[in-house]
Design a protein that fits this description.
Elements lengths: L4 E6 L4 H10 L5 E8 L8 H4 L12 H4 L4 E2 L3 H7 L2 E4 L1 H6 L3 H4 L7 H9 L5 E4 L1
Parallel strand pairs: 1-2, 1-4, 2-3, 4-5
């Protein structure tokens, strides 16, 4: 693969999102291009948003430390920055955010998977 795929992490400031940041930090095929979170963290630098809440045993990776967090409401911005988005279970199950990406109500996993399979929208990978 000559170019890395640009990925976003929805819910990237929580514990699962933090772990995913570490997993993707030096990945050979993926580059973190966006960290996406709710209104409490949106607009902050990643390091500010996780200050006092960083649960990992290593330092915050340089690739996200000074990245500005994108609001989960900024669908078009996320689409411009990402080839696909990893989504942690908390965001996925609530449907409060994920459904907005496709203008559909919160859906069960099978319905949601069937919807994005043939759409031209951002692909979510539930982690």
């Amino acid at each position: 693969m000559s170019e890395k795929l640009r990925v976003g992490i929805l819910g990237g400031t929580g514990m699962v999102g933090q772990r995913f940041v570490l997993l993707l930090e030096n990945h050979p095929y993926f580059e973190i291009s966006a960290v996406i979170a709710g209104p409490r963290s949106a607009g902050k630098l990643y390091s500010e948003a996780v200050e006092g809440r960083w649960k990992m045993t290593v330092e915050i990776p340089a690739c996200v430390k000074d990245m500005t967090i994108i609001s989960s409401e900024e669908i078009e911005e996320i689409g411009k920055k990402c080839d696909f988005v990893f989504c942690n279970e908390t965001f996925y199950v609530t449907g409060k955010t994920v459904g907005k990406f496709f203008n559909i109500p919160a859906a069960v996993e099978e319905e949601f998977a069937a919807f994005f399979k043939n759409s031209g929208h951002i692909v979510f990978v539930n982690i």
